[in-house]
């Protein structure tokens, strides 16, 4: 397995804040790694350190057999030598240059080769009809594609994308997500993409690094990190809707009995959890029913009362008191079919395999797995 990029860096800031970024990006068939965390957590600083735009205080950055930064040996390779493609949040296009000129800016070599590379990227990014336009004449989505084409034009060894969809309105983001995913998969360049948006992470990423409290706390496949956070800080960062204290009371036949408030849950036994835990349940894994229950494979049927209904576009977030506070996410049509209202009695159904447990005594510890 070829290693593309290894980072073990630290950077401190006035006031005592610090960032420690230790991870490995691997060049393979799943090239996009998402660096995920809340605003202000240090994601952009990490990207700028990798690009050579900021200097870490300690540690090293290596790409293949090259050392880009080594604090102990006073090595710091300048950005232009690292061959990194960088897509800024604001795109940073030159307003006085055409689309073709923006894409070709910084590309070296004979003129025919430069022109051929620009033409190929115009086709790949579906920009052929916009080649002679200027950035002020383009939509936000078109500007993003031009900026991405410019980042790819220098044939970078690593691609860094800083919140590439944050400047776009909601109707524009959805088709651009799909297009960006297509291009990143097709180009095959190891990519580190910064975002704090869950949908961006799920749509664009193959793997994921979660940064919280200034450290990389978990690394792994995107869906695994979202559904199986390693600790409480990760659970909060990835937006796990229900996180509540519980205690393991029994273990039998591959299942745990976990006491949560006034309720008892059957949970798949991972084999390494006991005692005090945090119980984590995603809202989309909760099914709500009224009246008699149908035959279902789920083991957990929790009677409760609706205490809040919060519309979220085409969805509705339902808060249920079922011995503990449980969040469910259903469609608006499902809410209407069920006739849900505050105070109504419902049954929340949750599969044993959909419940994730975090040991409470290790909730402040970071995951040791940082290889992506």
Question: Mind telling me the C-alpha Rg?
Answer: 24 Å
CATH architecture of the largest domain: 3-Layer(aba) Sandwich
* CATH topology heading of the largest domain: Rossmann fold
Distance between the termini: 11 Å
- Overall form: globular
Approximate strand percentage: 35-45%
Instruction: State the CATH class of the largest domain.
Output: Alpha Beta
Q: Give the overall average pLDDT.
A: 88
- Give me the count of strands: 21
Q: What is the CATH homology-level superfamily of the largest domain?
A: P-loop containing nucleotide triphosphate hydrolases
Main sheet characteristics: 6 strands, mixed
Oligomer: single chain
List keywords for this structure.
single chain; 36% strand; 2 domains; Rossmann fold; 6-stranded mixed β-sheet; 5-stranded antiparallel β-sheet; 21 strands; 372 residues; OB fold (Dihydrolipoamide Acetyltransferase, E2P); disordered C terminus; alpha+beta
